[in-house]
Amino acid sequence: MDNPGHILVVDDDAEIRNLIAEYLRQNGYQVSLARDGAEMRGALSTAPPDLVVLDLMLPGEDGLSLCRDLRAKSNLPVIMLTARREEIDRIIGIEMGADDYLGKPFNPRELLARIKSVLRRSVASPAQQSSARHLRFAGWTLDCTARHLIDPQGVVVPLSGAQYRLLATFLQRPNRVLDRDQLVDLTLGREATPFDRSIDVQVSRLRQLLRDNGREPNIIKTVRNGGYVLAAPVERIDQ
């Protein structure tokens, strides 16, 4: 079986680590394991993976801090595992840069489906599927190759994987109202769950990056009972 990717699993529970590793290996993945942040960093430097499955509750430095640190240095996809059920924990995970999250206990098949979905998105985002290498809007430029923003003054603004996909989704559909279910499907590759407000948090964070977070945003506007719409014209540039 061809190797579909290399997954790093970071969890202090040996039983869960081994369960995930065995299931992923049965499905052709290369798997590395880590118990905490120190082992995670060692694994990242030794054999960089294609995706990290990261537990929220770890001894010492927790998963949120590790995710935030990882996101500041790379766009490596991250799926957060959490035993907590509170919506705020999932929202914070997304804010820290996680690409998806899964609550414990979980079915290994569900984790495998999430991994496949995130890996597909990481290599084939909406902006990458177009021929344009740059998308300009409201004085900003999205570099679809480097996967970062350039502000009106020419300063590079790093993006997490989730932020990049959300912005690219809007830029590919200017002046089109997108509701929350559509945005979850387009950016996370799955159906929205009831009361899931993570998209609202992501839109708010994206507005902050775009300095569009006033009382009446001009770039990404809220449509009452409808969702969100990118209101700025978009110019596609092939070079």
Number of domains: 2
Helix content: 25-40%
Query: Which structural category fits the helices and strands?
Result: alpha/beta
The whole-number mean of residue pLDDT values reads 83
- The CATH level-2 architecture of the largest domain is identified as 3-Layer(aba) Sandwich
Strand adjacency order, main sheet: 2-1-3-4-5
CATH superfamily of the largest domain: Response regulator
Which value, in Å, is the CA radius of gyration?
18 Å
Shape: globular
Number of helices: 9
Distance between the termini: 38 Å
- CATH fold naming of the largest domain: Rossmann fold
Would you state the CATH class of the largest domain? Alpha Beta
Number of strands: 12
Major sheet: 5 strands, parallel
Helices and strands, in order, run as EHEHEHEHEHHEEEEHHHEEE
Strand content: 15-25%
Low-confidence stretches: 124-130
Summarize the structure.
The protein is of the alpha/beta class and 239 residues long. Helix content is 40%, strand content 20%.
Describe the structure.
The protein has helices at 14-26, 37-46, 63-73, 87-95, 108-123, 126-129, 161-171, 180-188, 198-209; strands at 6-10, 30-34, 51-55, 78-82, 100-103, 134-137, 140-143, 148-150, 156-157, 220-223, 227-230, 235-237. It is α/β, with parallel strands linked by helices and 239 residues long. It folds into two domains: 6-123, 3-Layer(aba) Sandwich (Rossmann fold), CATH 3.40.50; 126-237, Arc Repressor Mutant, subunit A, CATH 1.10.10. The protein has a five-stranded parallel β-sheet with strand order 2-1-3-4-5, sandwiched between helices. Residues 124-130 have low confidence and may be disordered.
